[in-house]
Design a protein that fits this description.
The protein is of the alpha+beta class. It has helices at residues 42-63, 105-118, 141-150, 181-194, 279-297, 309-312, 317-328, 377-383, 408-417, 447-457; strands spanning 86-88, 91-96, 102-103, 122-125, 131-136, 165-167, 207-210, 223-227, 232-237, 272-275, 355-358, 364-368, 374-376, 390-392, 398-403, 431-433, 472-475, 487-493, 499-505. The longest helix is centred in the first third of the chain and has 22 residues, at 42-63.
Length: 506
Amino acid sequence: MLAPMPPKSPIPLNRDEATPHGPLGGDARGGVRAGARGAASGAAGDAVRDGVWGAVEGSVRVSLPDAVREPVRVRGDACPGALRLHPADDGALARLRLPGGLLTHAQAAVLADAAERLGDGHLDLTSRGNVQLRGLDAGCGTELAGLLEGAGLLPSRTHERVRNIVASPLAGLDGLGAGDVQSWARRLDTLLCASARAAGLSGRFLFALDDGRGDMAALGADVTLLAQRDGTALVRTLGALGDPGDPGDLGDLGDLGDLGDPGALGNLGAALRVPAEDAPRAALLAAEAFLTVAGETGSGAWRIRDLPPEATRPGGPLAAAVTERLRSAGIGILPGEAPDGENPPAPPATAPAPGPLPSPDGTVALSVYPRLGRLSVAQWRQLLSEGSALRLTPWRGVIVPALPPGTAPRLLARLRTAGLVTDPASPWYGVGACTGRPGCAKALADVRADAAASVASETSVPSGGPKDTLPVYWSGCARRCGHPQGAWVDRVATAEGEYTVSVQTS
């Protein structure tokens, strides 16, 4: 159920998937699986990297003589992963990174088995298109890692928490968009896992790969690739290349639907234009440049918005470091914007509505949403019942692609019967919630139960005013873990057992 707009209140500080407070057993250690095609290796590769880093670090030192401040982060990133389990009140929690939200049928089947054998029999979808398993036994880490490695879901133990990549989920399915960002996601993942430097990224650092429709560009990622129809890509680093307003906030830009054509996405701020085939490598190099600037400032930054303002000003040290790093690596930085009229107008960029999505090739994709982002193993297996792969979205939805037109209606009916949201008219559509009690010790309420009761009684939103405006998100405390991007109706539990209601924007 989507909601009208109550009064606005201040933006919350937390915008990531969760804010855990300590790992179960510390960092896992293991070897890096190298072998990325085109990645530098051996003595020659070391020499190239040393030369590039010497140039970048020298540039940063010159441009940031007074930028070092008290660290904004005084402890290490404690984000959970597949190897670093997080202790919760309902057992250990594992977060499994799925670059681009992509799962083969076999990989998705392994996740169902893991949830059934090791967890509480459910799979939770996150606001970055990842999966969480809850209710795990603290001693199951070795068995879980073995299952994931066997399915190709854990390509590098040292990089498993930094593989945070979201990609336009409908790319190649609806005839819109300008690039194959799914292949970009796979390529960037390979490059990340082959880079020793990238292992130093925070588990919260985010890459977004946008096929030109604007859906991923609106998510406030640290590094965003924007596909263009002229065979190029725009590379944006949040705040460093000229974003308007607060570097961590896209403000009134909303979902970019008002910007018109995909080429206009460059108006979000200056961006570096590179050949499309170099886009994944450019994204990695931009992230590595961030690590250098973060080290030179002494900020302890996990994300670009944590850097000192002077480091992220337009044309400033981070922008210069990214530019120099790309040029030193032999990536051509191309001039100019796309010619006027080259990119046809795109529809407003929003989450895919639930229901069938016809594809130009004659197949049909299905878009569905689990209630409150949580699926039982039985529901998950129903998604797999036609042998298809899956694409998970940052809106806690699932795309089932490339179904025969005769099969799609039957599967959609089964998913509806199984309790998934398959129609925009469903009162569950647009309603989300954090874990809440009893799984989270910090929660002040059982928000899932309260949200379900509200949907059942149709009191999820205040009466009076336009409907179908904003999603509604229920939070067990002021941290608002996993909240949506953009604007939403914010229901936050208080110590008095009540909820405050406001509009938030991130």
